[in-house]
Amino acid sequence: MTIRICVRALFVALCASIALAASAQLNLGRKDDFEDGTTMDWSGGANPINIPDGGPMGAGDAFMQLESHGGAGPGSKLAAYNLTSWFGNFASIGVRKINVDLRNQGATALDMRIVLFGSNGDRWNSTVAQHLEPGTWWVNATFVLSASTMNRVAGFGTFDEAFVSIERTMLRHSTSSNSSGGTPVVAQLGVDNVSARPGDPVTPSSFSVFRGVLESGGIPQLATSDDSYVIIRNGITALRTESPITLIVDGTAASSTLTSLTCTVENKVSITGLTQRIDLFDFVAGQYENESTQSATTTDSVVTVNASNPGRFLESGTRDLRARLRIRADGPVFTNTWRSFTDQMIWNTLP
């Protein structure tokens, strides 16, 4: 009996591990275009199916089709969700928008919204729907994911608490942003190119090397991820706690208000044993705040930090943003000269 129970428990654990391995949390830039002939793990009562052509690009462009019959019970509402690919810590991933192509193929007007389900039991609806009149051609819709653009319809937590642990993403017709369950409708909807997007990009307008020696590179190298680098050699410091490489970058946001701010740094170093720190300048407090500390790598690595209370990192009037990259040895290194290679240093914002 004991052996049988242990074997059964081992089998259940193995199945759970396989299921977890088959799932992968959302990646920034993911696009579900349905060209593989499947629904790419989107499911739900609206019976998602793959249609081989007729997408936004016309013949040969596959898309996903949803269909609901109205009334009550399963299949009454137009909705599809994904819990095997569209989950994870959206804040650290850097996802700030969901972009999707939609086509109302039915005879009833639709109001499509994104719904985010937090692992804490919270549920958040888009406050503004994408309205689709019957029989219209494909419409490209963008849903912004922030506390000011989404409405909690279930649970008790904050948006930020849910956003770091999303367990599923749903696309659903709902005539009200306050509905936790959607609206029954007789409808048919085409869906294509469901994409995870960052916020509005802000590229550097200026930079300075506070410590270290600039060997090559400039603003164009910091603006894009293209294996073209700002290369800095370590400099002289008076104190061990100072960073021999300190790069300061400024940019200008498009809006005078911020509801979301991330900073992405792609960097590598020439030797092991170094620590990399990313700081954002708090213009209210008049000082830098450390957002990330981790071992620097000898191959390109990307770190995205998510700022809490983002308005304090935006200078009033000038709309300036400032970030700092510091690199130093926190232990012994066996060479006097080493370098950092910064491939990209940008922000993403939402007003």
Could you characterize the architecture of this molecule?
- With 351 residues, the chain is mostly beta strands.
- Helix content is 10%, strand content 44%.
- It has helices spanning 2-22, 90-93, 159-163, 219-223; strands at 31-32, 49-51, 63-69, 79-82, 97-104, 110-118, 123-126, 130-132, 139-144, 150-154, 166-173, 186-197, 200-202, 204-211, 213-216, 230-233, 245-252, 260-269, 274-282, 287-295, 301-306, 320-329, 339-350.
- The strands form four sheets. Strands 1, 2, 3, 5, 9 and 12 form a six-stranded antiparallel beta sheet that branches.
- The longest helix has 21 residues, at 2-22.
- It starts with a helix and ends with a strand.
H/E topology pattern: HEEEEHEEEEEEHEEEEEHEEEEEEEE
Question: Which structural class do you get from the secondary structure elements?
Answer: mainly beta
Spatial gap, N to C terminus:
62 Å
Largest beta-sheet characterization? 6 strands, antiparallel
Tell me the fraction of residues in β-strands, as a range. 35-45%
Number of strands: 23
Low-pLDDT stretches are: 1-22
Q: Give the count of helical stretches.
A: 4
**What overall form do the CA principal axes indicate?**
elongated
Into which percent range does the helicity of residues fall? under 10%
Radius of gyration: 24 Å
What would the average pLDDT be, to the nearest integer?
91
